[in-house]
Design a protein that fits this description.
By secondary structure, the protein is mainly beta. The protein contains ten helices and 42 strands.
Length: 685
């Protein structure tokens, strides 16, 4: 069926000096692997499409239709290039979604508004502007990539995807009933291998020109557009993207999006408003604040203060300054500030909403995992967070807050969690339960003497099941499960595991009342894992009176403490049992722990760098390096800036930081494709 579409990379034209704005809007790009004969795709795609529809002009999508599990003419059109992208990401099943190259992989139902907002909150170091012209048969695409901030040296590729915005069939083309398909992949230019890309210096740009022929017999050419993206071939991270149907305006954050405050503080968040277009345009700006009682907020544009919303006309090719101010009041809590910009002229584009956060005095933090839900339904961990809140309130907590995992990563990166003592990680029935990045942060916090309760069904199954069968485990997540949760996964649970019974001989949890376990997720989705304690772990909950099926473990090495519930908290139907469990956990966790150096804790490798803050160089102590690894210094967005090879048995490494500017950075050990451990350091010049 395929009719060949010719493509040609014409030339890399030039580097042009320009002062075009200081920061760039970060487009969120999803590569969506789906299929017209995939029943789960039909069930899960609508949730993602609803999120995409609500974010037109903020997100990009490329939908690759795979060759399995059945018939799909959109795959038959260009099966080879689709297969190339399947191989590139090691996709083993559909539906599957890759976000920003390496920032998200999971179900379409995991593509939520919160995920988009979190990914879009940080600016990008490059701006990608795509313009098309056509003679009716051939289209010429000019891609101009402006460098507006430091972009680390790496092996970058630029790829240009030709997509069809909407494809409609009068009858389903496959067996799953879907008839309408968005952002269907048609062609990759110059090929799926991409072109080598070297960014221009800051303030300069690189222009590339491509051509392709329109397939007038197979495409609705009114729906065809092109989308360019710059990708790090080593990490697969996509730095930024741009399409020929993007808006000509931006709202860009400049400051860190998460800040730590104290009573009486004024915290400010700075933004740039860019009208890149050739005409003035009217925009509505609105601030929505969710903050503790006694806190206040407002925003200003070019120095004029507004408390709620305002309509302003921005001249062509102009930049305005926008500042959000948060006035921290008494009491512990988390303030969330959402500033939005909406065109009142081009109404097809969604408002751009960027969130910032201030946390003050919070000592206990509920973290909602933000992976896709197990059955692809509209549920999420946030659907059940109230169970944790109620239990904390019952047990006397007054200094708690709730964040999703992506937001928590920002809080950690920006050094805002030093007051937090106890973590409650709400996994529910979400996947992946753990990632290399999340466990590296959890280990860093536990090694500093903190405490964590982890709860969710199928955590063990997900960690220890092969990827070919749907699991997401890695060497790092398996090590965390064993060494920090003190647990061994035995088997997937069944409906017979319908009681949660305390180990009455345990001095800390033995008095927790028995609770029935109920299916709160619908269908047959009831899988409380069967586990047992290993290492420093101890069994604290069973599923049966014979105590042969274990469902809960506590672990401690004298520095940190963890509680692992192999069922989810919300599956405990008895409120008193659920509340008492959290109360007992808080009592066992005890008061504020005394932190120790990472190198003193079990399984740790990284010591704190010295001097810290560093100037042009720093030294990092290492422990138990049993194989060759790589020490990497990254910025807070995760971009690798410095890499130093580390040989087995190395005890310290000297790192040159002369090329880094004043600010906060992360350093980490990586080996075998996994991030093993992460710590923070500061550089002052």
């Amino acid at each position: 069926m395929k009719k060949t579409v010719l493509s040609l990379l014409v030339a890399v034209l030039t580097c042009v000096t320009t002062g075009l704005y200081a920061q760039a809007k970060h487009y969120v790009i999803f590569e969506h692997f789906t299929q017209a004969s995939c029943a789960p795709c039909a069930a899960q795609n609508p949730a993602m499409q609803a999120t995409l529809n609500a974010n037109i002009g903020r997100v990009h999508q490329i939908s690759y239709h795979t060759s399995w599990p059945g018939v799909d003419p959109m795959n038959a059109y260009n099966p080879t290039q689709v297969a190339d992208r399947v191989t590139y990401y090691s996709v083993t099943g559909v539906p599957d979604v890759i976000g920003l190259g390496n920032q998200y992989e999971g179900s379409p139902t995991g593509v939520t508004q919160a995920l988009v907002d979190n990914f879009a909150s940080d600016p990008a170091p490059i701006r990608v502007i795509v313009k098309e012209t056509s003679n009716g048969v051939t289209r010429t695409v000019k891609v101009k990539v402006f460098t507006v901030d430091t972009i680390p040296a790496a092996n970058y590729k630029i790829r240009l995807a030709v997509c069809e915005n909407w494809v409609h069939y009068t009858t389903p083309p496959g067996s799953n009933g879907e008839k309408d398909f968005s952002d269907v992949f048609r062609k990759m230019l110059p090929s799926t291998a991409g072109d080598a890309f070297v960014p221009a210096a800051i303030g300069d740009s690189v222009t590339l020109t491509y051509t392709y022929n329109l397939d007038l017999t197979k495409w609705d050419t009114t729906q065809i557009y092109s989308l360019a993206f710059i990708q790090n071939e080593t990490t697969k991270a996509i730095v930024n993207s741009g399409s020929s149907i993007d808006p000509d305006w931006e709202l860009v954050g400049i400051d860190p999006t998460f800040k730590k405050g104290a009573t009486g503080d004024l915290k400010t968040f700075h933004y740039k408003v860019h009208n890149l277009g050739a005409a003035a345009e009217l925009f509505r700006f609105k601030l929505i604040s969710s903050q503790p009682t006694g806190w206040n907020s407002d925003f200003s544009i070019n120095g004029t203060v507004h408390s709620d919303s305002v309509d302003i006309s921005i001249p062509a090719k102009s930049t305005y300054d926008l500042v959000v101010e948060a006035h921290v009041g008494p009491g512990a809590g988390l303030g969330t500030y959402s500033i939005s910009m909406k065109s009142l002229v081009n109404l097809q584009f969604a408002a751009v909403t960027l969130k910032s956060f201030v946390m003050s005095g919070v000592t206990e933090l509920i973290i909602n995992n933000d992976g896709g839900w197990g059955d692809g339904s509209g549920l999420s961990t946030a659907s059940f967070q109230q169970k944790y809140i109620d239990a904390l309130v019952y047990s006397g907590s007054t200094a708690y807050a709730v964040v999703d995992l992506t937001t928590y990563k920002k809080a950690f990166q920006y050094d805002c969690v030093s007051d937090v003592v106890n973590y409650f990680f709400n996994v529910g029935w979400s996947f992946p339960a753990f990632t290399d990045e999340s466990v590296a942060i959890f280990k860093s916090e536990l090694n500093a003497g903190k405490r964590m309760l982890v709860s969710g069904q199928d955590i063990g199954w997900d960690t220890w099941t092969a990827a070919s069968s749907g699991g997401h485990g890695t060497d790092s997540t398996k090590a965390f499960y064993t060494n920090y949760l003190g647990a061994h996964f035995n088997s997937d649970g069944t409906t017979a595991n319908n009681q949660y019974i305390a180990n009455t001989t345990d001095p800390d949890f033995g008095q927790v009342p028995t609770s029935p376990l109920t299916n709160v997720y619908g269908g047959s989705n009831f899988f409380p894992d069967e586990i047992n304690a290993v290492g420093v772990g101890a069994n604290i909950f069973y599923y049966n009176t014979a105590q042969t099926k274990i469902g809960g473990v506590k672990a401690s090495n004298g520095t940190w403490k963890t509680v692992y519930l192999a069922t989810s908290l919300e599956m405990m139907s008895a409120d008193n049992a659920r509340n008492e469990l959290i109360k007992k956990a808080r009592i066992w966790f005890g008061g504020t722990p005394v932190g120790i150096g990472t190198t003193q804790a079990e399984g740790a490798h990284l010591g704190q760098n010295f001097p810290n803050p560093a100037g042009d160089h720093t030294t990092i102590l290492l422990t138990a390096i049993d194989r060759d690894m790589m020490l990497e210094v990254t910025d807070l967005a995760g971009r690798t800036l410095v890499s130093v090879p580390v040989k087995a048995n190395t005890t310290q490494v000297d790192v040159s930081t002369s090329g880094l500017r004043t600010g906060l950075y992360l350093y980490r050990l990586a080996g075998g494709g996994n991030v093993l451990e992460t710590r923070r350091m500061e550089i002052v010049k």
